[in-house]
């Protein structure tokens, strides 16, 4: 696999000065701040960006990569570790072999097993050369002392030895294997999507043991009570109606086809994909557009005179139409389009329910710095009213999806932050 960032040694001194100015090399830190390793560090920085490492390993208001974020799992919260080169609390005592073992085998230097909340089932596909480059970058960071409690799961999930059984059932170690029958661009996209990007971790449903259902790969999942949509090429629920260029645009700026990235995807766009090379994004799009899947058959839309539709329409006109407009077309670059939007027709309506209850904000990127926002309506709409308006959105302007119940809204309201009683 070719390097994600192709760099020459031309102008090394100038590049080194730039790195020092940006704080990418820690003078006096574990990494050598000289022209022999800055190219590797820059390559590692790009790889870490593609892997979106900073999103999980940074606590709210904390120092980037210093850990302490509570990842919510079905089994309890897991605190993310400190990745800075602090000797006592970070990875300052780790060797390159130790880091590669964590990436490829899911084990700490002492052999203790990691939980797959750290996506080693995906990172095992990363080449050793790329793992070494990420290690070099992390070693160049300023060491931060931040002790993180790494044993927060309740019994019996806190027994890490049980991961040996889990690995035996669900984990296959090994680097990404290019398909010789496919193009270099396709294989590059596969390496990024299946490996560093670990897209399947969110966009694939999980079984009761927290493993991805391999027979439904990339067909959609649930993350923090948001729907991670189907990203196969399925025409009904996935990317079938999107062009390669539209997928690239969405990953680059967080907007395409009237859709705005929000929820967990907002962070992915802001921290990762918006900072990746266009060629890498195109490779990912090419790969995703070949991932065919037979989604659920399109249901029939509810009749306009259905009582739920009548109630939902009244709420939409009163509460939503000012921004999303009466036709559901939204306002380009400001308010998302609801007509024909896959967020409206996913089998799981969690994202629509979530955003009505708590509000939300779109991604802010270099080319689109304004992050459009939606206020919370959970404080004034009842479960029945939210169910009605979401049902209306899912069955208007050509959309067709199953109606939503008040019980479904109540269940999500009880889980999401910012929900009103």
Automatic annotation (TrEMBL):
Primary location recorded for the protein, binned into one broad class: membrane
Tree of life domain: Bacteria
Database matches in Pfam families: Cytochrom_C
Subcellular location: Cell membrane
SUPFAM superfamilies: Cytochrome c
Cofactor: heme c
Keywords, comma-separated and alphabetical: Cell membrane, Electron transport, Heme, Iron, Membrane, Metal-binding, Repeat, Respiratory chain, Signal, Transport
Keyword presence, Membrane: yes
Residue ranges constituting the Cytochrome c domain according to the UniProt record: 39-142, 184-292, 307-397
Coiled coil regions in record: none
Secretion signal span: 1-33
PANTHER family referenced in this protein's UniProt entry, alphabetically: ALCOHOL DEHYDROGENASE CYTOCHROME C SUBUNIT, BLL4482 PROTEIN-RELATED
Protein name: Cytochrome c
Organism: Bradyrhizobium ontarionense
């Amino acid at each position: 696999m070719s390097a994600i960032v192709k760099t020459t040694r031309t102008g090394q001194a100038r590049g080194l000065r730039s790195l020092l100015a940006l704080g990418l090399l820690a003078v006096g830190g574990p990494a050598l701040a000289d022209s022999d390793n800055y190219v590797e560090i820059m390559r590692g920085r790009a790889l870490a960006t593609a892997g979106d490492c900073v999103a999980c390993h940074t606590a709210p208001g904390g120092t980037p990569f210093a850990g302490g974020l509570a990842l919510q799992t079905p089994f309890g919260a897991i605190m993310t570790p400190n990745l800075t080169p602090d000797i006592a609390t970070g990875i300052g005592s780790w060797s390159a072999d130790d880091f590669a073992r964590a990436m490829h085998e899911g084990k700490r230097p002492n052999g203790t097993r990691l939980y797959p909340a750290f996506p080693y089932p995906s990172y095992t596909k990363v080449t050793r050369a790329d793992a070494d480059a990420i290690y070099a970058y992390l070693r160049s960071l300023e060491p931060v002392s931040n002790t993180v409690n790494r044993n927060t799961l309740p019994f019996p999930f806190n027994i890490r030895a049980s991961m040996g059984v889990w690995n035996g059932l669900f984990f296959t170690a090994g680097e990404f294997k290019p398909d010789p029958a496919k193009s270099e661009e396709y294989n590059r996209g596969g390496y990024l999507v299946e490996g560093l990007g670990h897209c399947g971790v969110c966009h694939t449903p999980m079984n009761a043991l927290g493993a991805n259902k391999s027979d439904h790969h990339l067909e959609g999942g649930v993350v923090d009570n948001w729907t991670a949509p189907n990203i196969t090429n399925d025409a009904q629920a996935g990317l079938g109606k999107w062009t390669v260029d539209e997928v690239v645009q969405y990953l680059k700026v967080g907007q395409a086809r009237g859709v705005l990235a929000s929820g967990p995807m907002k962070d992915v766009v802001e921290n990762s994909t918006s900072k990746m090379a266009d060629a890498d994004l195109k490779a990912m799009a090419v790969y995703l557009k070949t991932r065919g899947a037979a989604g659920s058959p399109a249901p029939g839309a509810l009749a306009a005179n259905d009582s739920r539709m009548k109630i939902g329409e009244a709420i939409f006109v009163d509460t939503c139409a000012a921004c999303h407009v009466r036709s559901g077309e939204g306002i380009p670059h400001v308010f998302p389009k609801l007509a024909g939007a896959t967020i409206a027709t996913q089998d799981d309506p969690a994202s629509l329910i979530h955003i009505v209850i708590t509000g939300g904000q779109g991604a802010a990127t270099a080319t689109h710095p304004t992050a459009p926002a939606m206020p919370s309506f959970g404080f004034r709409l009842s479960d029945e009213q939210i169910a009605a308006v979401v049902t209306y959105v899912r069955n208007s302007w050509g959309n067709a999806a199953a109606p939503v119940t008040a019980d479904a809204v109540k269940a999500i309201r009880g889980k999401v932050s910012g929900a009103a009683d």
